[in-house]
């Protein structure tokens, strides 16, 4: 057999060139004209490739400057430094973003998507939707807004149902959320970064639209109330915690239904949805996108889970969770919000209030950072089993850690099987 002739992609590591696709596209665009001229590759058919092959050292230096500029821009250096007088919070953003990318590289991250991510796709926030619901039900607008300002979303729903009935509320849900939305770049980046499991509280079908590539059985939609059933591991699992608008009769809508799903008078971690959230909270790094993370049932669940872990295991490390979060406008409020989220086990990465394009920017930056590390986004990693009680006669953090490590070896199907049997 003849030896294969070496080509330039072997000698000059062309595969590495492909890792820097965003930089190469920028270099070949109008924005890169000055850099191309300075390095005498302007006018060549593919300037970035010529630059890489002709002067790798200069290419690497230009890439490092480009990467730094993009990181500082997307991670809000200018805003955070100007708003809070120095680089303290911007440096937190840099470190926390790298921590998120580390977890993405390890395949540990599961996105948790709220209504905020669907706004650009043409859907209202949940608060705005409930405001419209109040109008349809003929409830005084000022009264509705007062309840919403206090975070009393379930009380608004209960009042609508008490005055007009559940059918009115359900039809309004159907009118608003059953239509086809506009697929956004942020939603497409979710499909690129995550090809295993996506969790959402949204009723709309924007995520399903984005994952619908035309391939047969590309994804499966799992109702949160039935989420302990064994999933098809060959498909993307879209877990809709509160149901799918295609079957509004199976959606969690009213206060009574929330009580049934989460527990009446307090969180019941033996119910299906809290049990599911407990599994992912303990065994994955959740990334909250478009979530208010205020006074809602899912937050109550996460607080109860974290408190339970601390009471049972003491100062033991749990997976790090993340939120891409708009920053409050005063440092006092930012300090308080930072503490609030960390008490839930959630690390915030901040962006300027109201500038939601940074959510897409950070997802895109995360994808590019993974490429720089030679990782193709979408690689999944098997989830792990939650910790058990330490063996009798043993105590202390070291023994607890040994127990946790031992049970990290258990697979997803076994835990789901046990959870289903308990249910």
Termini gap: 62 Å
Proportion of residues in β-strands? 5-15%
Rough shape? Answer: globular
Average pLDDT across residues? 85
Brief descriptors of the model:
single chain, about 425 residues, alpha/beta, seven-stranded parallel β-sheet, 21 helices, globular, disordered N terminus
Structure characterization notes:
Helix 5 (47-54) packs across helix 6. By secondary structure, this protein is of the alpha/beta class. It has a seven-stranded parallel beta sheet, sandwiched between helices. Helix 17 (297-313) links the parallel strand 5 (285-289) and strand 6 (321-326). 53% of the residues lie in helices and 9% in strands. The chain has helices spanning 8-11, 14-19, 21-28, 33-38, 47-54, 56-74, 77-83, 88-105, 126-136, 141-149, 153-164, 166-177, 185-193, 206-211, 255-262, 272-283, 297-313, 331-343, 357-372, 397-407, 412-422, and strands at residues 109-113, 197-200, 219-223, 236-240, 285-289, 321-326, 346-351. It is globular and about 75 Å long. It starts with 7 loop residues before the first helix and ends with a helix.
């Amino acid at each position: 057999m003849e030896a294969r002739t070496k080509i330039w992609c072997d000698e000059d590591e062309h595969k590495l060139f492909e890792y820097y696709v965003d930089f190469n596209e920028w270099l070949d665009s109008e924005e890169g004209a000055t850099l191309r001229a300075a390095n005498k590759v302007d006018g060549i058919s593919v300037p970035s490739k010529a630059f890489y092959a002709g002067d790798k050292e200069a290419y690497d230096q230009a890439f490092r400057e480009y990467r730094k500029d993009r990181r500082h821009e997307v991670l809000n250096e200018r805003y955070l430094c100007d708003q809070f007088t120095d680089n303290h919070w911007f440096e937190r953003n840099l470190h926390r973003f790298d921590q998120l990318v580390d977890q993405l590289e390890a395949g540990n991250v599961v996105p948790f998507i709220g209504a905020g991510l669907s706004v650009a796709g043409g859907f209202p926030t949940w608060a705005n939707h409930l405001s419209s619901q109040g109008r349809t039900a003929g409830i005084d607008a000022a009264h509705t807004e007062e309840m919403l300002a206090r975070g009393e979303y379930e009380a608004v729903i209960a009042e609508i149902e008490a005055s007009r009935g559940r059918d009115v509320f359900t039809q309004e849900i159907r009118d608003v959320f059953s239509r086809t939305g506009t697929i956004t770049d942020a939603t497409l980046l979710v499909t690129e970064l995550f090809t295993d499991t996506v969790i959402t509280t949204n009723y709309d079908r924007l995520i399903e639209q984005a994952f619908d590539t035309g391939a047969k059985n590309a994804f499966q939609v799992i109702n949160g109330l039935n989420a302990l059933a064994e999933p098809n591991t060959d498909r993307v699992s879209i877990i809709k915690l509160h149901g799918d608008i295609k079957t509004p009769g199976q959606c969690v809508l009213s206060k009574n239904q929330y009580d049934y799903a989460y527990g009446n008078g307090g969180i019941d971690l033996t119910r299906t949805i809290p049990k599911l959230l407990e599994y992912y909270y303990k065994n994955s790094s959740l990334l909250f996108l478009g979530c208010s993370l205020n006074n809602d049932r899912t937050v109550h669940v996460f607080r109860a889970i974290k408190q339970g872990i601390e009471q049972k295991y003491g100062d033991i490390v749990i997976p790090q969770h993340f939120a891409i979060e708009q920053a409050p406008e005063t440092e006092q409020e930012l300090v308080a919000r930072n503490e609030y989220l960390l008490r839930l086990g959630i690390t915030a990465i901040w962006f300027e209030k109201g500038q939601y394009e940074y959510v897409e920017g950070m997802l895109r930056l995360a994808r590019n950072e993974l490429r720089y590390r030679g990782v193709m986004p979408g690689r999944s990693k098997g989830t792990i089993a939650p910790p058990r009680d330490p063996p009798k006669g043993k105590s202390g953090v070291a023994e607890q850690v040994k127990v946790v490590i031992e049970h990290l070896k258990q697979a997803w199907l076994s835990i789901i099987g046990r959870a289903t049997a308990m249910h």
